[in-house]
Amino acid sequence: MASDALYRRVLLKISGEGLMGPQAYGLDPATLDRVAGEVESVRALGVEVGIVIGGGNIFRGVKGAANGMERAAADNVGMLATVINALSLQNALERRGVATRVQSAVTMPTVCESFIRRRAIRHLEKGRVVIFAGGTGNPFFTTDTAAALRGVEMGCDALLKATQVDGVYSADPKKDPGAVRYDHLTFDEALARNLAVMDTAAIALCRENRMPIVVFDLHRPGAFAQVITGQGRYTTIEN
Ligand code: UDP
């Protein structure tokens, strides 16, 4: 590990929207390539990287249910959306020469590996980026919870949540000009103030297992590597 990296192994959570770029739906090739470049630069620091990817750019179970679908069926569709994103990000990473494996919680052996914890750890140890697809594999969960779960299972030093803003604010900074940005929060503060960081199940899992969450802006070039070296703007949430 490079001496200036704060972490040995991290779990990066990217929402589906983070891959959408300027489009209103789906995947933007230029954005995929840029995100792949961010991951490549962190690998170059010697840090092991696991990624959990969302599916909201394609399908969300809650929205499907609101339109009349059975919730569990809609969530299964949402989980498949995360596989589409995972395979696309894998392709973008491998075009840059970054070795990757996709492991899905929803078994799909003709397109990717199935999630096997010990095998995933071995991939990370070998320097491969592991992209975890299919969320937790269960309906009624989110990919934020999947990120907390995989992060803990992989023994990650931190969960890095890439968002659309540079940290956690007291209110939505895009709507409220008086919103205050926090540098540091405890898990209890994040829960008590009902701050929109991650869902409660994800925060509780991180708190229980003492895995810090770092919230940063995916859209600022170089931000991922900066978080790894303790530079730039971000919010850390810990015990
Ligand atoms: N999903 C699920 N179980 C999981 C993770 C995800 O059923 O463990 C489904 C759920 O329908 C969700 C969709 O997959 O709406 C996409 O995930 P999410 O909304 O978390 O993606 P993001 O908001 O990060 O893009």
TrEMBL record:
<dbReference type="Pfam" id="PF00696">
    <property type="entry name" value="AA_kinase"/>
</dbReference>
<dbReference type="InterPro" id="IPR001048">
    <property type="entry name" value="Asp/Glu/Uridylate_kinase"/>
</dbReference>
<feature type="binding site">
    <location>
        <position position="60"/>
    </location>
    <ligand>
        <name>ATP</name>
    </ligand>
</feature>
<protein>
    <recommendedName>
        <fullName>Uridylate kinase</fullName>
        <ecNumber>2.7.4.22</ecNumber>
    </recommendedName>
</protein>
<dbReference type="InterPro" id="IPR011817">
    <property type="entry name" value="Uridylate_kinase"/>
</dbReference>
<keyword id="KW-0665">Pyrimidine biosynthesis</keyword>
<comment type="similarity">
    <text>Belongs to the UMP kinase family.</text>
</comment>
<keyword id="KW-0808">Transferase</keyword>
<feature type="binding site">
    <location>
        <position position="56"/>
    </location>
    <ligand>
        <name>ATP</name>
    </ligand>
</feature>
<feature type="binding site">
    <location>
        <position position="75"/>
    </location>
    <ligand>
        <name>UMP</name>
    </ligand>
</feature>
<keyword id="KW-0547">Nucleotide-binding</keyword>
<dbReference type="InterPro" id="IPR015963">
    <property type="entry name" value="Uridylate_kinase_bac"/>
</dbReference>
<comment type="subunit">
    <text>Homohexamer.</text>
</comment>
<dbReference type="GO" id="GO:0033862">
    <property type="term" value="F:UMP kinase activity"/>
</dbReference>
<feature type="binding site">
    <location>
        <position position="169"/>
    </location>
    <ligand>
        <name>ATP</name>
    </ligand>
</feature>
<comment type="function">
    <text>Catalyzes the reversible phosphorylation of UMP to UDP.</text>
</comment>
<keyword id="KW-0418">Kinase</keyword>
<feature type="binding site">
    <location>
        <begin position="136"/>
        <end position="143"/>
    </location>
    <ligand>
        <name>UMP</name>
    </ligand>
</feature>
<comment type="pathway">
    <text>Pyrimidine metabolism; CTP biosynthesis via de novo pathway; UDP from UMP (UMPK route): step 1/1.</text>
</comment>
<feature type="domain" description="Aspartate/glutamate/uridylate kinase">
    <location>
        <begin position="9"/>
        <end position="217"/>
    </location>
</feature>
<dbReference type="InterPro" id="IPR036393">
    <property type="entry name" value="AceGlu_kinase-like_sf"/>
</dbReference>
<feature type="binding site">
    <location>
        <position position="172"/>
    </location>
    <ligand>
        <name>ATP</name>
    </ligand>
</feature>
<feature type="binding site">
    <location>
        <position position="164"/>
    </location>
    <ligand>
        <name>ATP</name>
    </ligand>
</feature>
<feature type="binding site">
    <location>
        <position position="55"/>
    </location>
    <ligand>
        <name>UMP</name>
    </ligand>
</feature>
<keyword id="KW-0963">Cytoplasm</keyword>
<feature type="binding site">
    <location>
        <position position="163"/>
    </location>
    <ligand>
        <name>ATP</name>
    </ligand>
</feature>
<keyword id="KW-0067">ATP-binding</keyword>
<feature type="binding site">
    <location>
        <begin position="13"/>
        <end position="16"/>
    </location>
    <ligand>
        <name>ATP</name>
    </ligand>
</feature>
